[in-house]
């Protein structure tokens, strides 16, 4: 830096509002330290010379190697590059490099630590929020670094009313600029605000300034501000100032001077275009090393953005997959619920068709009643036509309901039924009514309904079927379970034989009483002539409308049988499952 203590920027001019104590054309000097560290404000209507004044001040500072940073809102300061090696950053391609808020710390470091003058051109940002954030971050880093460096430095803010407005909300960038205005001086950080509308600039900022320049103003609201600060005499005179002429007010001078600022030497990029030919001068370029440091930040940002874009794309795919799975899960829950209900309905109807009705639960467990029910089953079976060997048809119901069988008559049957009323509330007549209300149910009916729900028979339904049959089996009393094991081994038997083979006696009524829960649970089926068949495989196969493979049926049967078959040495026990139902869950 230079040892220069003053810079000359203007000459005293004569005219209304000026002082008579200073001769016209006397050079006007400004103390460098006060300019660099103080708070200044330059105002004037468009074309009055305010930007020229700011440029003249900066040219004098740059001539003496004092770096500055100017926030250029209109792209009119790049003309300084005609004479000075100054870094021009912003959003336009004309800039030395395009920057964003991530460059802010490096920009502040270049300005303060490497004495690089910088034009922060925010005129090319389409989104005002981007410009505001860049200004905020840059000024914040300048303030933070200056607290340690304490190096005289000037921050110039063009169109400052956009950031520190008198009315309306103030953004974070404006708050930071106000903070610099109040506290920056003691750290060595000065600020110069420039605006063509002083009435729109926050008065707290203007009244704290220690040097001000008032160029020509004509709007009543603006001249009123001059009147309140300088007096009515100057409020009238400010309207008649010439181009580049202004009233200079400073804390280090007691007088208000009317001065004519010098004309800037560098290219006037902010001049209003005219009819004459416009030719942009050759501008100085900055060191490639400076640009490369900022380019590294840009490259790093692009790399991160690319990585973020890739990660975001992967995340979007995962989110889409999650949504798909959630939708499939909801559909599966609905499907499983429907399938569970369907499977249970099939099992219930299957049980009803083989038992001859539903809801037959006697109030008293009377052995003679059980035996009579078995006899009724046998009579009904003998009344069935040969083509209906798997269910009840109308002819069988009619035969059971009233046609003579083995010498019996409807009247005899009614008499026998009335004799049994005292022993059981569940009568054969009740069975007939229930069966008639239920209607004819055959295996073909079940298969037809199953086909309608073929898509609903998923693995979740298998669990429902297994759980349903396991619940039926585990609810059986132990004597009945013993008989069920006999049926599992033999396949086909009759109640009395099964009772004797499992350690019981030849009491027929007792045998049928123990056999009865198996029929109610549907785990054995009446196949005619007093014979019954082990029914668990048939129930599963019928529930799935014969759509399962043999090994699938065997696996489900094994899971159910594991609840009542204890010995793994049983010849019918699948050794690979070890009597454990967990394999079904693993399969699913």
Q: What would a concise description of this structure say?
A:
The chain has 588 residues and is an alpha/beta fold.
How much helix, percentage-wise, in residues? Answer: 40-55%
Whole-angstrom Rg: 51 Å
Strand content is: 5-15%
Shape: rod-shaped
Q: Give the structural class.
A: alpha/beta
Counted up, domains total 2
Largest pleated sheet: 12 strands, mixed
Count the beta strands.
15
- Lateral arrangement of strands in the main beta sheet: 2-1-12-11-10-3-9-8-4-7-5-6
Cα(first) to Cα(last) distance is 80 Å
Average pLDDT number: 78
Q: Helical region count?
A: 21
Point out poorly predicted stretches.
Answer: 357-370, 378-429, 431-441, 449-458, 568-588
Observed structural traits:
single chain; 588 residues; alpha/beta; Rossmann fold; 2 domains; 3-stranded antiparallel sheet; 21 helices; rod-shaped
Structural write-up:
Helices cover 49% and strands 12% of the residues. A hairpin with a 2-residue loop joins β14 and β15 (531-534). The strands form 2 sheets. It has a 12-stranded mixed β-sheet with strand order 2-1-12-11-10-3-9-8-4-7-5-6. The chain folds into 2 domains: 36-267, Rossmann fold; 330-587, no CATH class. Residues 357-370, 378-429, 431-441, 449-458 and 568-588 have low confidence and may be disordered. It is of the alpha/beta class and 588 residues long.
Break the fold down into its secondary structure elements and pairings.
Layout: E1 6-12, E2 27-31, H1 32-37, E3 39-43, H2 50-63, E4 68-72, E5 87-90, E6 97-98, H3 104-113, E7 118-121, H4 128-149, E8 153-157, H5 172-183, E9 189-195, H6 203-208, E10 211-214, H7 220-230, H8 232-237, E11 245-250, E12 257-261, H9 288-355, H10 367-383, H11 394-401, H12 410-419, H13 428-438, H14 443-452, H15 459-474, H16 478-490, E13 492-493, H17 495-501, H18 508-521, E14 524-528, E15 531-534, H19 536-543, H20 550-561, H21 582-587
Parallel strand pairs: 3-9, 3-10, 4-7, 4-8, 5-6, 5-7, 8-9
Antiparallel strand pairs: 1-2, 1-12, 10-11, 11-12, 13-15, 14-15
Helix pairs in contact: 3-4, 4-5, 9-15, 9-19, 10-11, 10-18, 15-20, 16-18, 17-18, 19-20
């Amino acid at each position: 830096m230079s040892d220069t203590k003053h810079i000359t920027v203007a000459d005293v001019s004569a005219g209304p509002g000026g002082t008579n104590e200073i001769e016209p054309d006397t050079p006007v000097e400004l103390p460098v330290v006060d300019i660099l560290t103080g708070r200044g404000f330059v105002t004037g209507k468009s074309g009055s010379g305010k930007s020229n004044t700011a440029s003249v001040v900066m040219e004098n500072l740059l001539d003496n190697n004092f770096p500055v940073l100017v926030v250029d809102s209109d792209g009119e300061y790049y003309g300084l590059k005609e004479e000075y090696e100054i870094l021009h950053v912003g959003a336009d391609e004309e800039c030395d490099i395009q920057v964003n808020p991530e460059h802010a710390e490096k920009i502040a470091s270049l300005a303060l630590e490497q004495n690089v003058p910088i034009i922060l051109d925010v005129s090319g940002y389409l989104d005002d929020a981007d410009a505001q954030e860049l200004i905020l971050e840059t000024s914040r880093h300048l303030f933070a670094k200056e607290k340690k460096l304490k190096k005289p430095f000037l921050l110039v803010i063009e169109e400052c009313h956009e950031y520190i407005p008198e009315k309306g909300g103030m953004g974070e960038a404006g708050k930071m600029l106000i903070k610099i205005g109040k506290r920056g001086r003691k750290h060595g950080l000065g600020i110069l605000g420039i605006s063509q509308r002083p009435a729109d600039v926050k008065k707290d900022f203007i009244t704290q300034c220690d040097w001000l320049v008032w160029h020509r103003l004509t709007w009543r609201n603006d001249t009123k501000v001059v009147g309140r600060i300088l007096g009515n005499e100057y409020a009238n005179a400010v309207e008649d100032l010439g181009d580049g002429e202004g009233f200079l007010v400073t804390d280090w001078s007691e007088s208000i001077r009317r001065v004519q600022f010098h004309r800037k030497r560098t290219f006037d990029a902010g001049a209003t275009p005219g009819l004459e030919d416009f030719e942009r001068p050759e501008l100085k370029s900055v060191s490639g090393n400076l640009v490369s440091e900022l380019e590294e930040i840009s490259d790093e940002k692009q790399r991160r953005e690319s990585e973020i874009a890739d990660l975001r794309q992967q995340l979007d795919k995962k989110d889409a997959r999650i949504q798909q799975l959630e939708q499939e899960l909801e559909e599966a829950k609905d499907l499983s619920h429907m399938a569970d209900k369907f499977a249970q309905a099939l099992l219930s109807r299957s049980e009803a068709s083989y038992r001859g009705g539903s809801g037959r639960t006697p109030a008293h467990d009377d052995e003679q009643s059980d035996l009579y029910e078995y006899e009724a089953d046998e009579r009904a079976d003998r009344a069935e036509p040969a083509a209906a060997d798997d269910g009840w048809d109308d002819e069988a119901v009619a035969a059971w309901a009233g046609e003579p069988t083995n010498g019996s008559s409807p009247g005899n049957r009614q008499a026998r039924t009335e004799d049994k009323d005292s022993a059981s509330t569940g009568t054969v007549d009740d069975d007939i009514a229930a069966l008639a209300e239920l209607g004819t149910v055959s295996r073909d009916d079940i298969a037809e309904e199953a086909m309608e729900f073929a898509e609903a028979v998923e693995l979740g339904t298998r669990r429902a079927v297994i759980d349903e049959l396991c619940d039926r089996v585990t609810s059986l009393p132990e004597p009945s379970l013993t008989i069920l094991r006999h049926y599992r081994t033999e396949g086909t038997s009759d109640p009395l034989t099964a009772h004797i083979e499992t350690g019981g006696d030849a009491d027929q009524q007792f045998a049928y009483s123990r056999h009865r829960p198996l029929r109610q649970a549907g785990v054995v089926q009446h196949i005619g002539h007093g014979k019954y068949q082990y029914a668990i495989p048939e129930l599963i196969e019928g529930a799935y409308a014969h759509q399962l493979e043999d090994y699938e049926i065997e696996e489900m049967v094994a899971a159910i049988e594991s609840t009542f078959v204890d010995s793994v040495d049983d010849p019918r026990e699948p050794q690979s499952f070890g009597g454990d139902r967990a394999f079904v869950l693993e399969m699913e």
